[in-house]
Write a structure and sequence with these properties.
Blueprint: E1 3-6, H1 10-21, E2 27-30, E3 42-45, E4 48-51, E5 58-59, H2 63-69, E6 78-82, E7 85-89, E8 92-95, H3 107-118, H4 121-124, H5 132-140, H6 142-157, H7 177-186, E9 198-202, H8 208-217, E10 222-223, E11 230-232, E12 237-238, E13 243-244, E14 247-250, E15 259-261, H9 265-272, E16 276-284, E17 294-296, E18 306-309, E19 320-325, E20 337-345, H10 351-363, E21 367-369, H11 371-374, H12 381-395
Parallel strand pairs: 1-2, 1-14, 2-10, 7-17, 11-15, 14-21
Antiparallel strand pairs: 3-4, 5-9, 6-9, 7-8, 11-12, 12-13, 16-19, 16-20, 17-18, 18-19
């Protein structure tokens, strides 16, 4: 075939549909699961939808992406929400992001945070450190680091934090003492809004409905229950030559292949060094909130790191979804829980160099990594769609 697409998640589905838009139908998708959607699949629980890979929302700030997606799940079938998220602290709930809402804490906590921010390395001119823990203190101050950033990241990733790089955190703005003081005095947040400040979510379905509809259009081109067990990059073949193509689009985790051949030893070394985390999404039938969409929970005594109150966006539903790192999860009788073996790519030290090597060598043979796992980046689904649309424009 001309194109072989590995994975029927948002990246693979978008790329395939854009091929069809261009009149190209010489392609095939292989998908290891029995249905499409990847991490964005949904299941009915208690008669209402639950997103089994965690909450997945469509940002309103990508008009071209939304125009494309509305072809499959119409805008009239989507509801638009103003994002309301909280952080659960020892002193009570505050709005997200943390550094913009310190003014919501008790006065003694405000003072401690301000003192900490004033002495943060980014404000005193101290040299930027290399390891993760020291860098967070340098960037945000010790108080935010110890009360929020350390425990939260330890929960979500369950690794030694100093195995992570700092490159992926550079999007965090320096926490300005003057701006934080101003927000505390004015009693309102100061700074930029977080991503997904406004988002779309289906009125009657889980997020998985969008991807099922996208898959329906190309159902004759998808082989379900078909795992890509091995790949030869040089010959562009999969599963011992059962599938061969002129161009391969890989949206699956590089580490999922039992064997990768037709590449350098350095390529396979780089793949072996990639790391990821796994999560469990557990249904909590009796936990609800009428105002907050989701809440971040750094408290190490609580097993979950994020809880989504689904009645605030999946109308008519009840209960909540708790996201728990698989290493922290202790299964109990009667649990309704879903495991995502591949949830978050880990931004470990050396990852940028490794994934750059993988993508460059693969592209030399017309094999492209695409999406969260193909590019090993923590991309949201709407960004994945945008990247897949751009790649289709570039190479199709």
């Amino acid at each position: 075939m001309m194109y072989l697409i590995i994975g029927a998640g948002p990246a693979g589905l978008t790329f395939a549909n854009r091929l069809l838009d261009k009149g190209i139908n010489d392609f095939r998708i292989i998908e290891m699961e029995s249905s499409a959607g990847g991490l964005c699949r949904s299941e009915d629980v208690d008669g209402t939808p639950l997103d089994i890979g965690g909450g997945h929302f469509i940002d309103v700030r990508r008009p071209k992406v939304n125009e494309f997606l509305f072809r499959f799940l119409g805008k009239d079938e989507m509801a638009e929400y103003d994002r309301v998220t909280k952080i659960r602290t020892n002193a009570g709930r505050i709005d997200y992001p943390y550094e913009a809402n310190i003014w919501q804490l008790p006065i003694d906590d405000e003072v401690e945070h301000l003192k900490s921010i004033a002495s943060a390395g980014c404000n005193t001119g101290a040299k930027e450190p290399e390891n993760f823990r020291d860098w967070i203190v340098w960037k945000l101050g010790r108080k935010i680091a110890e009360d929020y950033m350390f425990p939260y990241n330890e929960k979500i990733f369950s690794v030694d934090l100093d195995t992570l790089g700092t490159y992926w955190m550079n999007k965090l703005p320096d926490v300005s003492f003057e701006d934080t003081l101003r927000s505390c005095l004015m009693k309102k947040p100061y700074g930029t809004l977080p991503g997904h400040a406004k988002f779309y979510y289906p009125r009657k379905y889980g997020s998985g409905e969008l991807w099922l509809r996208m898959a329906e259009r190309i159902k004759d081109y998808i082989d379900y229950n078909t795992k890509a067990e091995d790949i030869n990059i040089e010959s562009k073949s999969v599963n011992g030559g059962s599938y061969k193509a002129d161009i391969i689009i890989n949206t699956a985790p590089w580490t999922i292949f039992d064997k990768i051949s037709g590449v350098s030893d350095e390529f396979n070394r780089a793949v072996r060094e990639l790391r990821h985390s796994s999560i469990v999404v557990k249904y909590l039938p009796d936990t609800e909130d009428g105002k907050v969409n989701w809440e971040y929970v750094p408290d190490p005594s609580v097993d979950y790191h994020r809880i989504l109150y689904r009645n605030t966006f999946a109308k008519g539903s009840k209960g909540s979804w708790a996201e728990i790192n698989l290493k922290r999860y202790e299964a109990k009788e009667g649990d309704v829980a879903f495991i995502s073996g591949y949830a978050y790519p880990l931004n470990t030290v050396g990852k940028p160099e490794n994934i750059s090597l993988i993508l460059k060598e693969a592209r030399e043979h017309d094999v492209y990594g695409l999406g969260r796992w193909g590019e090993w980046e923590h991309y949201n689904s709407d960004l994945v769609v945008e990247l897949a649309m751009e790649l289709a424009e570039k190479i199709a």
